């Protein structure tokens, strides 16, 4: 099956790489974003986000004439909705961007078109959008194809994973599933697994909730081990020698815009049933609070012992190792809390993957480690593994750098 024209709505972390990939497979892509600056940047063959190999993919797609960005959609054969689904107060998912995208393409839809949602969405969203489309355009009922197909790429490896990861594709009916599989098979080399829309929606949420629950288990162990005077890193390494045990690593909490967010999409719709999933979110959030308390206690103890305030190095702000992304970062939350609780203290804030920050004054990791009395390891960046600590320095290693 060959599609003449694709409209992608949303040119962010997933929408732009997906658009470039489709375009570089010889399919014309009209990418839509509400942000005019983003649109202008892309039309110059440039990019507005950090992701390896994305720059060359976008430049090629634009200069070959297969990708063009715009603030408005045009008539096409396939519509891909790749907009964010944030959450509102009380951790309820907000699907208003998906609704707005659907409204924008509503007048353009015609017989035989394919409409696919990729945005992380609560169960039932694809069916809800189908009902909305059919209520506004009843003549299209049964004449268009609708499906849900989540992405599962890891930031930092998006261009590779978009092609090689398996994907789950769920249509609102069998024809929609098959039509979508035919579409993705033009540019995905991973296996394409057919299902229905509700299962595909739940599958995305399940993947991230599963990782959240597993990390919560590791974080809970770290709290127990701290009280029991056991090295949690050694414990996990030993437990993982069992052929059927594979415990993840504790850290200072769970961040990013996926794992720390998606489980709430399940909890908010099924609060009575999702006990472990909800509790995992609580454990992982509590871990960040606990780390901040540990830092405060170490400072107070130092002051009692030395009759002066300590200099504290807070090492890392990103939400995971070796990236520059600070969104929903537990390390950033801890740094903010520690500084708020005692803004008279002397702090060195370190984040080797960014040059400057609008709130924090950054210090190089070498200078921070050289001058600090207390070194707090919040993120396991590679640089930190080679730092030279002094003998009398107090070290709080929340992420296993020194394990
Ligand atoms: N973390 C730990 N301990 C671990 C592993 C991770 O504390 O053993 C923490 C990290 O430090 C970070 C958070 O978890 O704060 C999330 O990091 P991550 O590397 O687990 O995941 P993300 O958010 O970068 O990407 C996830 C991926 N999902 C899964 O692995 C199930 C990715 O495949 C998804 O596409 C992405 O979410 C998404 O967009 O949903």
Keywords for this structure?
403 residues; alpha/beta; eight-stranded mixed β-sheet; four-stranded parallel β-sheet; 13 helices; 13% strand; binds ligand SAJ
Report how far the terminal alpha carbons are from each other. 53 Å
Question: What's the arrangement of strands in the largest beta sheet?
Answer: 3-2-1-4-5-6-7-8
Q: How much helix is in the residues?
A: 40-55%
Order of helices and strands: EHEHHEEHEHEHEHEHHHHEHEHEE
How would you sum up this structure, described in words?
With 403 residues, the chain is α/β, with parallel strands linked by helices. 41% of the residues lie in helices and 13% in strands. It has 13 helices and twelve strands. It has helices at residues 15-23, 36-43, 54-63, 96-105, 125-136, 158-164, 174-184, 197-228, 232-239, 262-269, 275-306, 330-341, 365-371; strands at 5-9, 28-32, 67-70, 78-81, 114-117, 145-148, 167-171, 192-196, 311-315, 346-350, 374-377, 394-397. The protein has an eight-stranded mixed beta sheet with strand order 3-2-1-4-5-6-7-8, sandwiched between helices. Strand 9, helix 12 (330-341) and strand 10 form a beta-alpha-beta unit. Helix 1 (15-23) packs across helix 3. The longest helix is centred in the middle third of the chain and has 32 residues, at 197-228. It starts with a strand and ends in a 6-residue tail after the last strand. Ligand SAJ binds at residues 152-155, 207-208, 211, 215, 248-249, 251, 254-256, 258-259, 319-320.
């Amino acid at each position: 099956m060959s599609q003449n024209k694709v409209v992608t709505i949303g040119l962010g972390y997933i929408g732009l790489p997906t658009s470039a990939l489709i375009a570089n497979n010889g399919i014309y892509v009209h990418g839509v974003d509400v942000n005019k600056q983003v649109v202008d940047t892309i039309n110059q063959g440039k990019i507005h986000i950090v992701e390896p190999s994305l720059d060359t993919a976008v430049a090629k797609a634009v200069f070959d004439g297969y990708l063009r960005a715009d603030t408005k959609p045009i008539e096409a054969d396939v519509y891909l909705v790749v907009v964010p689904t944030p959450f509102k107060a009380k951790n309820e998912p907000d699907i208003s961007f998906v609704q707005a995208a659907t409204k924008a393409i509503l007048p353009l839809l015609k017989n035989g078109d394919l409409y696919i949602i990729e945005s992380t969405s609560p169960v039932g969203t694809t069916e809800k959008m189908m009902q909305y489309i059919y209520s506004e355009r009843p003549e299209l009922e049964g004449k268009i194809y609708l499906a849900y197909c989540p992405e599962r790429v890891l930031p930092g490896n998006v261009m590779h994973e978009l092609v090689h990861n398996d994907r789950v594709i769920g249509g609102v009916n069998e024809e929609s599933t098959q039509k979508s599989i035919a579409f993705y098979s033009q540019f995905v080399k991973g296996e394409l697994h057919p299902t229905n829309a509700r299962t595909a929606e739940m599958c995305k949420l399940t993947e991230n909730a599963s990782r959240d629950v597993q990390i919560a288990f590791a974080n809970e162990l770290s709290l127990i081990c701290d009280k029991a005077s056991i090295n949690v890193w050694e414990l996990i390494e030993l437990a993982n020698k069992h052929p059927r045990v594979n415990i993840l690593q504790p850290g200072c909490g769970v961040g990013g815009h996926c794992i720390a967010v998606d489980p709430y999409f399940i909890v908010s719709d099924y609060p009575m049933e999702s006990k472990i999933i909800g509790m995992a979110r609580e454990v992982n959030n509590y871990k960040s609070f606990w780390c901040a308390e540990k830092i405060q206690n170490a400072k107070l103890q130092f002051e009692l012992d030395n009759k002066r305030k300590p200099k504290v190095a807070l090492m890392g702000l990103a939400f995971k190792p070796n990236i520059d992304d600070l969104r929903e970062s537990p390390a950033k939350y801890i740094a903010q809390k520690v500084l708020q609780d005692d803004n008279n203290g002397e702090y060195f804030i370190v984040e080797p993957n960014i040059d400057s920050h609008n709130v924090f004054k950054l210090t190089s990791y070498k200078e921070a480690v050289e001058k600090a009395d207390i070194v707090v390891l919040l993120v396991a960046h590679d640089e930190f593994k080679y730092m030279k600590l002094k003998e009398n320095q107090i070290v709080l290693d929340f992420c296993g750098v020194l394990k």
